[in-house]
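#struct-queue
[09:14] JT: dropping the first one here, sequence first, then the structure tokens:
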Amino acid sequence: MRNAKIRAVQYGCGKMSKVILNYLVDHGVEIVGAIDKNPAVVGQDIGDFADFGYKTGIIISDKADQVFDNCDADIAIVTIFSYMPEMYEFYETAIKHGVNVISTCEEAIYPWTTSPSETNRLDKLAKENHVTIMGSGMQDIYWINMPCLAMAGMNKIKKVRGVVSYNVEDYGLALAEAHGVGYDSERFERDIASAESLPSYMWNAAEAICSKMNWTIQSISQKSVPYTLDEDVYSETLGRTIPAGQVTGMSAVTKVQTHQGIDLEVECIGKVYRQDDGDMCDWEITGEPALIFSVNKPDTVALTCGTIVNRIPTVLDAPAGYITSEKARLITYPSYPLHTYIEK
């Protein structure tokens, strides 16, 4: 057990980082740096930025190298974009300074086949610098490890079906654009539906499930369909009204066939919510016996942030390299300060 507090840098100061920063404080983590390029937040004390009610002396900076040079951080919490190619430089900066990384980047949960170049380079770089990089968030527990644990009680499995939904308004502009929000149908078809290089977030989760269950993938495919409404809807993230007929989000269905004869069909729905909409996390396992379970209207933002923070000790205990969360030690709720859960 470690006696010294975990020292963390928040890399990316957007909507979700405010929740993460508060959760870090709740669990006894020392925040030693904060980085962002947005002029609206650069220069702010994180106490003001995250509404702590007091100043901390930690100022949000746009000079990442300087922040890492001036603090002895254990880990960087990187919350910027959704796909590995656009995240590479941020991960590289932290790793070259000998700092472990945990990230909300959705593709980072299992990027070995969707971004093999970036992932293998980061794996090599992390090993050279004796640190670990891992993706985590809502999908870590509720899209991957929880379904796998539930299947452990079954005699036979034929098919795994999962449907998840979230409000793109909760995650900022980068995620909204990745879902085609505000696009017309022609642009959605060109930039989203036909862009084979952009896996849905459940694509990576499905691959992680197969990894956890030791299933080998025979084939995998995806189809993305736009969501539109017959009425105008206002998007706070875009800062404008989306006219009726324009895209408010999308559904992406990923289908997997395994050599073990077990099929997976997972659907990821991200859209601008109306008043009565709510998040989904529904699972149906066909087999002996059949199994249906769900998390009713989960608070995806809070659960993502909670998982990120509570996952930190297992990142610090993991071997050097790119370690995906299904390979890490089981995450647990920290009843005591977070550093006391570090085993090495």
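[09:21] JT: and here's the second one, same format:
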Amino acid sequence: MAGASVSEARFRVGDGAEFVRFVAAMMAQLEYGCEPRGDGLDITSPFGVMRLRLEGDAVLLRVSAEGEGNLVLMRESAAYFLGQFRSDLANVTWSGAHRAGALPVNFRLGRVQSVEERGASYLRMTLAGEGFARFASGGLHFRLLRQKHRTGAPQWPRMNARGTTDWPEGAAALVDKVYTIRALDVETGTLVFDIFRHPGGFTSEWAETRPIGEVVGIMGPGGGWLIEREWALIGGDETALPAIARQLAAAKPGQGGKVFVLVGSEADVEDLPSGGDYEVTWLFRDRGDDLVAAMTGTEVDFGADYGVWFAASKDQAAAVRDYFRARAGFDRKRLQSVAYWF
């Protein structure tokens, strides 16, 4: 990875072989690329590369990524699985940790500029701020941070001396939710996203109050990027509609495929403009349409330049994933089927 930022951590785990097996199993669950290398592993994630090597009774973990923001994400991903193996390992110290007390490099402040109704089931929120150019590529999604309890000025995450992020706790704790960027204007400094309206939703109930002028934090980008295939089978429910709309809007001439979107009723149908040639089929909960059946009942030419993208509930994502993986000739690298809710 030419020009990448690099960071290392060295620590002891006891049984190194057991640790390697544990990490390999976790990477398989996350569907990250994971290749054995001698007594270690080479791991590829959406944010960078991780190299794990055993050195006697110690482990050397080396992460590399394009840009410091992605490097921090790699450190924190590693800290997560280290903590799953043994809780104290989540606090290992990384080389190059020189920003203690500073805001994360992938953090920006935004101010709520407007909230508008979008169809029957969404609110569209526009944030205004500076430094939004980083959200123009590298991921469809961002993390929206706001105060859980309004107790004075918000406290934001800060870098620690170990090279990872410390988050406010207790009364200062933040609501942290992931959303899809629908539109971004770097020149005017505005970021637009849609919030699905549902009872009990932390963000939807907050947005219903029209909190114009409130300051929020945003971090990212993250998550998957655009499907760059000539033909794609795309599907999802209401929670995935913003991501589907973003995919179609970014499509280029020569790209196309079939799209299935499950929503509550015909009142939720919206125009989905695209530069590509996609056949969009709307499915409706109020008439009992089956999203998984629509996906698995569609023929895919495995000899073409194809891709399959799906997002809905955990069970639905698993069903679509299992179906295509079982198909003879299907390339797993061309499938992204993720749970947006449980």
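[09:30] RK: nice, looked through the second one.
[09:31] RK: Residues 135 and 221 are 5 Å apart (CA to CA).
[09:31] JT: good to know. The chain has three domains: 5-91, 107-222, 231-341.
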